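Support case: user asked for a sample of complex input and structure output to validate their parser. Sending the pair below.
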Amino acid sequence: MTVTIPASTPARPSRFRLSSRTREAIDGYLWLSPWLAGFLIFTLGPLARSLYLSFTSYHAMGSPEWIGWQNYVVAFTGDGQFWPSLGRTFYYSVLLVPAVICGALILALLLNQPLRAGSLYRTAYFLPYVTPVVAIALIWGWILHPQLGIANYLLSQIGIEGPAWLSPRWAIPTLVMMSFWMLVGGSRMVVFLAALRNVPQELYEAARIDGAGKWHSFRYITLPLISPAIFFNLIVTLIAALKVFDIAYMLMIGNQGGIASGSAGFSLYFYVVKLFDHAFSFFEMGYASAMAWIFLVILLCITALQFRWSSWVYYAGEEGEG
Amino acid sequence: MDHDDLTLSMPQPKIQKGMSRRQFLRISGLGALGIATASLATACVAAPAAAPGTGASTGSGAASSESVTITALVDSQDEPWYRQRSDLFTEEQGTTVELEVVPNADYATKLQTNIAGDTSTDLFVAATSNGLYYVLADQEVALDLSSLVTRDKYDLGQFFESSIQNLSGPFEGRLYGLPYSGHPSGMHWVYNADVTQAAGAEEPTAEATTDDLLTWAQSVLSDGVWGFYPPVHLWRDIVPMALTFDAPLLSEDNRTAQLNTAEAMVFWEWIYDIFQVSKVSPMLSEMPSGGMRDMFIAQQLVSMSDSVGFRSIQPTIEGQFTWGVVPFPKGPTGTRASHVQSNAIMAWAKTEQPDAAWEWQKWMVSKDSAVALGKVSAAPGERPDAWADPAFADDPFHAVTQELMKVGHPVMNPANFRTSEMQTLLIGSLNQLWNGEAAFDQAFFDSLNGEVQAILDKPNL
């Protein structure tokens, strides 16, 4: 049968009409586009550029000169401070991360109690986290001054001769103490507090009826249910610790202005401090880029291992799915 | 069929009149994308226009010589001087100077970033002490001024000889900047005359030797008051102290480390004595965060060897106590030394206003500018006629600086320009000795010498 369509027939829907799913996708990408543009230009672009620069000799002022793997070879075999700086960074992280995780959890448990002026405590504990690092470095410098500082004065009152806190022997433990003070009441504590408030109260009630004490409730209810928060905090704290820079740099500059001229000498010459030094003091942008990429691979490996060994993390939503 | 399709398939006056949530999202999303794209496009178009360092002025400068604008990146330390002299320059020559002022601590990073982004100002400043001048010149980021000097028959003899040698020596005579300020490093022995008198000691004299200094410092020691602090934190200050002991720490061509020679060992032992044997100096870990100057102000330190930077604390101590200054003592063989550092004004190699930039450079290093600098800063500009100006005749500190400039050694930096790298290694390692955490012996310096040599053997930056 032949059908003739009169000229006056109303227009049919376009053959190119997009499906609702496609239109929805376009809408989504439209909304994402400002962020995507920023990501491509300001994050992915520089990342790719730094990967290229890591294979060059580049001083930020001339043209990059391709040298292949040489920067990486020098880092692993020809740089006397490469391995020591990495070692210091891991030593600092191993001391700091467990202390911060445990400290933040304990603080969150305390603040999770029905307290009068609880928000005041939360603010007080959060304050060091938002205090500028320069101010923290200066104030702790005064507190820990071996002759004039209040720390050694208080120790002397109980018959203990305080050490030179920022001498090479004590510099890393001292920095761990300062970082602990800065981080323990910060975002980690807030994450723990939120996780604790999400633990269903009826579980505690049921446990109490079954005769469980406080320790058993904590061990078998609280800990498993906040384990995702612990895992999250573990990952971000370890990465933050390995990236230690600002406060160490402040303490390393010393009072005369040159890096390593402070009393701590090289003892706070962490990996990222060294990286910064190569980029902006030694004008070795190519080598600094190689160091950055080596560091990225190290961080990725550590994070992957953490995920691999994360069977202790309990996700309530996944129960019974597998 | 989803809800959206249902809505569209049915005649709904409300939707025809107004706007659905999805339509709103689509339109506003497109708007946001449009604004973002437009912003990026504007930035991309504007950047190349600004890249030659003159922004809008580039065009106007090309159109008319009377409306030329040049830009300069300067550090905040001498900002009043830059502004005052640039305003006068504009009045006299008609060229506008736009100053971009950056805090001293961020200066090198900002300059590097500008250059890497091809958005440098027409002019910038750089010091020899941290090696920045040499890197900028060696990479030919800065304009070679040699042809302009020849063209204008510009007299370089008006500057200290060591200053010109500092700037052109490593480049076979090619000059990449004009010296606008300089100093002989930390070789002023400043002392507290009141405490000296109270301790029953004689005031130091210009004829004192390094041995005399040690004896004197011990004589003024008392509970909580130290005798002397040497400048051991910067390479530029260690070099002249070692020269006093006839111990150049680098070979003449600046390619070989000489940290472990017999003369150098005498010098190192003298410093070690100060910290660990005579103990006339506080160890680094015993110093307040403000360093030796804070201790001097608080009268916990009777004397120190300081640079022209001492000027910054002069107003604080005036009226509190009487102070005096003499040159750093002569060494065991009677040698007196200093280490001349220069700060240069450089033009960007890609400037579109090389002539205007050159005129400003010459203006800023003229005698008038040099004298004006001396009135607002630590020292006059780097030329003998400014240093001899009557404006500074009655200044005892300046008189010592003048004496030190006469015995000034040109900059002794690694020939491959890796000054910062070497300084970090050297200072960090030596601090272990001064803090008593490493044994003083030949082996320590043999090892350190080898590490420094490894840096000197690297290719040029």
